Amino acid sequence: MTVTPGWYMALSAVLFVIGLSGILLRRNALVMFMSVELMLNAVNLTFVAAGRELLSIDGQVSVFFVMVVAAAEVVVGLAIIVAVFRRRKTASVDELAELRG
Amino acid sequence: MVELTLFVIFGLAAVFGAVSMVWARNPVYSALGLMLTMLSIAVFYVSNGGYFVAVVQVIIYAGAVMTLFLFVIMLIGVDKSEERTERLPVQRPLALGLLALFAAGVLWAGRLVWVTGAPAGVVPVDGSIEAIGTELFRKWVLPFEVTALLLIIAAAGAVALALFREDGGDE
Amino acid sequence: MTGTLVSLAILLPLGGSVVLLFAGKRLPEPLAGVIATLTVAGAFGCAAVAAVDFLTGAGEALTVRWFDWMPAFGVDASLGWDRLSALMTLVVTGVGALIHLYSIGYMKGDARFGRFFTYLNLFIASMLILVLADNFAMLFVGWELVGLCSYLLISFWFERETAAAAGKKAFIVNRVGDVGFIVALMVVFAHFGSFRFDTVFESAPEVLTTGTATAIGLLLLVGAAGKSAQLPLYVWLPDAMEGPTPVSALIHAATMVTAGVYMVARTGAIFGMAPIAAGTVAVVGAATALYAATIAVAQTDIKRVLAYSTISQLGYMFMGVGAAAYVAGVFHLMTHSFFKALLFLGAGSVIHGMHGEQDMAKMGGLRRKMPATFATMTIAWLAISGIPPLAGFWSKDEILGTVFERGGAWTVLWGVGLLTALLTAFYMTRMMWLTFFGEPRWDDGVHPHESPAVMTIPLLALAGLSVVGGLVNTPFRTTLEHFLDPVFDAVRLAHVPTGSTAVALAGASVIAALIGIGLAALRYRDRVPDETGFAWRLMGRGYYVDDVYGQVFARSGKLAAAWLAFRFDARGIDGAVEGMGALTRKTGGWLRPIQTGFVRTSAAGVVLGAVALLGWFLWRGGL
After folding, report:
1. How many inter-chain contacts (B to C, CB under 8 Å) are there?
2. Which tens digits make up the pLDDT trace of C434-470?
């Protein structure tokens, strides 16, 4: 029994959905953030697996760029969380509902 | 056979890490779960020939990014664990329904074929630093330079946010 | 060299206008007028030097290109210098310079002295653009600019409500004519793909059918009738007398109102192909001539007499160019500009001397008080009445003779023209008698005095021109016809009668003039007859055409505007706009609860969208 790329794809789908559930169900901004990172990682895994199947290095280059963007995102996102926390003394996103219609 | 063994072991580890990240009430456990998942994914990178990205995954993600997360968790306070009760009435059933639909859709779509398209080359992918570097500096040199710009802007943005004060003034 | 001079002829008054616009207020009074007069005199000098070549026969028509204007239409801003435009330029700048000089005296002490000359200079520049245009687009620019100047100058004393209203009236009535003109330009461009005169006129026989030529001709006539105050668009000109008298002389007698005649003559190639359009021009001209003459008979305001007289004389010119007697039409345009400018300036001198009084019933006996004005106006009076050998005789006779020579139905027009000549002599004599002869009927406290030299010198110059101006084109020496030959050689010209017919026709004109003069002299010799009967009132009010227009067009227009403003706009447009606002607000209020402000609700929305997209792709892919 060989491991086909499909296996990796299915695994990343599962990881992606778990990350999605973290965003939908958790209130802690930090955990939601981690869930985003998890989803990014899941997608990265599909890139690498597909690149292997298609004999292309572009998948790995994509992973590289996604990581750079994710790093930038983490920097700014965590800074925002810290700034919000300094003002509101909470990391719960449900407290931040000022944009209610 | 080796790959199958690795896939089973680290696949379970990755899913376990992911679930525990979502499940844990304490964000420190969440961070540790995520770290486990990331390391597992690094293993998968290796088994798919992505040696360089595997190393980067370990150093940047599992190392730097998760350290940053933990640092912020400590800064904010470890004791800020949230209670399990959901205050948005329909959020939980709605979320679970949507997630089930999404997962079912994706897996259903992949039941026949996961990867489409013609192969781009003839030799197996070489994920060495040299190969990636050649690719980056030949084909992707402009996007690569733009990422530098992006990182500088992100750093500047973080500094600006850190300097922000309640009274609106600077330090 | 010639090109530079021609450009300079426009740029001098234009520059004068710009300078006066900024400096006019600060310059001491006569200086602004002196500058303006000098620029126009300079323009005349340039044009005269440039025109010398034509006189010696060496000159060729040439084009002076200024700059690319609308490349998409192949239109340059360029001037065409040929014999016709040379003649027009000389008339405009010559008469214009004299009237500028006169205005220095007439406008003395006016609060907006500098402003007046700004406009006057701008007008000269605009009129020169009009007559020097080498394509329809430039012609239109000049056409509109003179309209603007006319508007500004009619309502120059805008503190007077009547003056402001008269300016608006002139502007609006001219717009009506301009619609015809613009449509004509569109048709021309649609058929020729060009606005250039030479292209259009050379290719007209191949490109145009008679029907199209007739359509263009009639549309051009609408434009010309607006600008040249012909039936039925003449109503603005009598009211235009609200402007200062030099303006009436320059714009509303000598130059601008003749633009329609010039335009018909210029587009003779098109009218030559469209006998119906040309005939319509002639009929409109003849009808206007007679109609305005009958109104002029019953006017009591000295300037309104002259205004209706101008309309009538313009009718003559239209009759001439309509009958393809282009040289005759342009000839009458020239002589008329001399003696009518003189009449207006003389009337201005009278009004000046009478401290603003314009009612002829309160004049009389002025010949002793104002000898120079009286002498020069006498010459103009005889000239317009058609007494040989003064200017008006030759040009009017040439028009009438040519019309007669064409025979057939044209003989009727000749008869109308002859009758008009009689009436012209009658009302001009009436005006002279009421003003200068008889016993003084001045109001108390009015002490008439002769005008200063700065005003009488232009009068004398114009009187000289009125005497000799006709001699350039007599049956014995057709200098002008020769001069203009190259311009009109392409168009079919009507012929002037010769031999005994010519003598008989001239005799008839002179007899008609003498009868008119004689009748008026008998009637007004020693008294002012009662002229309040129904017929007199009817004519005096211009057959109540203004009132009818007011009821029909102004009132209906006002009603339509009121409906649009208070019903359509308030209910329809505003309703639609407010409805949009209300709809948006309602929909917004309706969708509001969706925006809970919770990030996770938004995230659920994103996932919902993703699921929907996924479903769509799956469904497209056949599951």
Report:
1. 34
2. 888 888 888 877 888 888 888 889 999 999 999 988 8
